[in-house]
Predict the structure of Ribosome biogenesis protein nep1 putative.
Amino acid sequence: MTTRINIPKERNDKLEWKRLIVVLENAPLEPVKVGAVYKLASTDSPNTLKDLQKRGKDTTIYRPDILHYTLLTLLDSPLNKAGMLQIFIRTYNNTLIEVNPQLRIPRTYKRFAGLMVQLLHKLSIHAADGPDKLLSVIKNPVTQYFPPGAKVFGLSYASEKLVDINQSVAEAVKDDNCAVFVIGAFAHGHINIDYTDITLSISNYPLSAACVAGKVCSAFEKLWGVL
């Protein structure tokens, strides 16, 4: 479940850590009880939505598969394997999760959903072969985990500022070792947060969260010479 990646652990070392920070915002993660067990609410499993419908919730938002695909893209990237990627997830109900770069996310959605349910109940997931926490529920706000002065970029198709992502990442880290990019991990709507410095669009076309994540990682890999 883990693969060894060299990342700083001490606070002072983290301040100098050259990396891309990705925040996956508004991920629809909600465990619901179905019979005697808990499952992750999903539009692909109507039996997980019955109680939410009774409570008057908009059940069309429950697409945790989007988060799954995006995490697979990020954690499989050469940038992550080089120890230059840090990932946070913030759910739609404001639960903040830190992802250890050494996590090997389950390849199948069913196993991924079970892992998320376990995490939200136990608040952390440990490696089977050591003491490392692979997933942890941590305290808000997410901004306290950013290096001082790091620029924070939101990404949204709705933004009127269309940019070349390769040029933008070069400008983002011109004077710094770190930049933060925020990607929506949901099916519909726009990012509505108060901690971005600017919101950009990186394509003339609406892209999936996983595609956006892949393009951003590729741009940083090119910038930092990660092959």
Notes: Helices lie at 11-15, 50-54, 64-76, 78-81, 109-122, 165-172, 209-224. DSSP finds seven helices and ten strands in the chain. The CA atoms of residues 153 and 181 lie 5 Å apart. The chain has a mean pLDDT of 91.
